[in-house]
């Protein structure tokens, strides 16, 4: 039964109820509430039908075959490196016309969409011209997007539910959607054969993947994983490597300025990168809530070490929402951390930070794969309860020192500082690099050539 039929039925039922149940206020209230909900849903469906219809007819335009217009929808400046190299190469290619737009977004912890201002500010710092889709009604922005008439659209993540309604897959179908991963899948639960029934829904078989024109795969493992679902034609999947790696490696070393007096001897440089998933049964990697006091004490007593805190963007919000820490406790920690002369907080792009550092300590996921490409020592703090790694994750973990307590972690880090130990993970790193760099060509070059040949011909 469709919404209109439901509405008619409820109207009749309400009329009957008003006559026969006039004294029964609760029944009448319930019926009126249900009718109101159906009316709202009917209006929403009508609105969506009109928008989808407009999207279809706008897609029937005669394309300009001289240049391929590509729109980058940026919702996180911290994840921009996954597309940055591609954007820069388009600027130097006479077959492409790249356009960048900043948009609102929400994380899994939020009930509202925001963040466009921070994205716009980050793009300005990089001197990237962009349009601002900061309007509250995303469908107004969608009309602007359609007027731009993009041939190709890149969005940063696959989860429709985290985007404003007009930026979900169904409304972007007037252009060719291209998937470039912002992270590498290294967890077993994202496999099709995972015991979790909905694992595929957040990995590589979402509506965004199904509706995509191209999925550019970072390694053979991901390519085969998507093929397992049998929802994509072979030409839709293209093995390219991970464009983000090139952007990270191309970043010049950049280390924060500290308030400590300058000395002749360069301090040892540690990145502390805590994950957001403390107490999250889905991932459960984070240990920030268990060791943040110990880190503060270490920093206070180790003035010959620079500490840069590079938290997951959701960390401080996540531990509060889950009731693991109070907002007051988080604020007190950050105040004390930022007041230390040898401590800093970094929340933006991080390629330059990696290049300038000496070692990383993390309990997270993405950095376990990304930091080793800089050929520097990595310490992985194991929560002891996290989701298992897949083959790629296990290969990456073999490049790190795994610890389960703070004192062991501190001892290993100090050994690298004092140069009493050297990294012995060269063989494991060689195995990892074979997976992470599956092709000899630059990933962005493969992507551009595939798009160009598919749309304009060879």
TrEMBL record:
Alphabetical list of Pfam families matching this protein: Glyphos_transf
SUPFAM superfamilies according to UniProt: UDP-Glycosyltransferase/glycogen phosphorylase
InterPro entries: Glycerophosphate_synth, TagF_C
Gene3D superfamilies named in the record: 3.40.50.12580
Protein's name in the database: CDP-Glycerol:Poly(Glycerophosphate) glycerophosphotransferase
Organism annotation: Acetobacter conturbans
Origin organism lineage: Bacteria, Pseudomonadati, Pseudomonadota, Alphaproteobacteria, Acetobacterales
């Amino acid at each position: 039964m469709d919404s209109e039929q439901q509405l008619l039925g409820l109207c009749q039922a309400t009329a009957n109820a008003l006559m026969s149940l006039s004294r029964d206020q609760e029944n009448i209230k319930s019926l009126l509430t249900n009718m109101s909900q159906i009316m709202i849903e009917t209006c929403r469906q009508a609105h969506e039908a009109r928008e989808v219809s407009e999207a279809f007819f706008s897609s029937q335009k005669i394309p300009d075959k001289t240049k391929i217009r590509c729109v980058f929808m940026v919702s996180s400046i911290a994840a921009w490196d996954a597309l940055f190299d591609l954007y820069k190469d388009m600027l130097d290619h006479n077959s492409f016309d790249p356009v960048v737009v900043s948009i609102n977004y929400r994380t899994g912890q939020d009930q509202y969409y925001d963040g466009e201002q921070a994205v716009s500010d980050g793009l300005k710092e990089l001197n990237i011209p962009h349009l601002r889709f900061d309007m509250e009604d995303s469908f107004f922005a969608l009309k602007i997007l359609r007027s731009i008439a993009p041939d190709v659209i890149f969005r940063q993540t696959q989860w429709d539910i985290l985007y404003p309604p007009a930026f979900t897959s169904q409304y972007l179908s007037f252009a060719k959607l291209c998937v470039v991963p912002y992270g590498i899948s290294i967890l077993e639960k994202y496999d099709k054969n995972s015991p979790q029934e909905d694992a595929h829904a957040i990995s590589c078989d979402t509506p965004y993947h199904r509706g995509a024109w191209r999925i550019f795969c970072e390694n053979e493992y991901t390519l085969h994983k998507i093929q397992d679902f049998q929802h994509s034609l072979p030409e839709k999947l293209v093995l390219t490597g991970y464009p983000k790696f090139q952007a990270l490696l191309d970043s010049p070393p950049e280390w924060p300025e500290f308030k400590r007096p300058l000395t002749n001897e360069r301090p040892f440089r540690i990145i502390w990168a805590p994950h957001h998933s403390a107490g999250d049964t889905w991932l459960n990697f984070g240990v920030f809530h268990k060791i943040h006091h110990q880190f503060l004490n270490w920093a206070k007593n180790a003035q010959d070490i620079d500490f840069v805190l590079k938290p997951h963007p959701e960390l401080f919000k996540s531990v509060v929402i889950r009731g693991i820490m109070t907002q007051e406790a988080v604020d007190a920690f950050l105040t004390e951390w930022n007041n230390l002369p040898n401590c800093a907080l970094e929340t933006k792009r991080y390629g330059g930070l990696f290049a300038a550092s000496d070692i990383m300590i993390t309990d997270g996921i993405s950095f376990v794969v990304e930091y080793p490409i800089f050929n520097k020592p990595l310490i992985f703090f194991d929560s002891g309860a996290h989701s298992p790694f897949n083959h790629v994750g296990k290969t990456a973990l073999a490049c790190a020192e795994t610890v389960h307590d703070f004192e062991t972690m501190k001892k290993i880090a100090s050994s690298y500082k004092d140069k009493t130990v050297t990294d012995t993970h060269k063989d494991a790193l060689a195995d990892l690099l074979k997976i992470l760099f599956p092709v000899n060509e630059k990933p962005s070059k493969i992507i551009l050539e595939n798009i160009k040949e598919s749309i304009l011909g060879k």
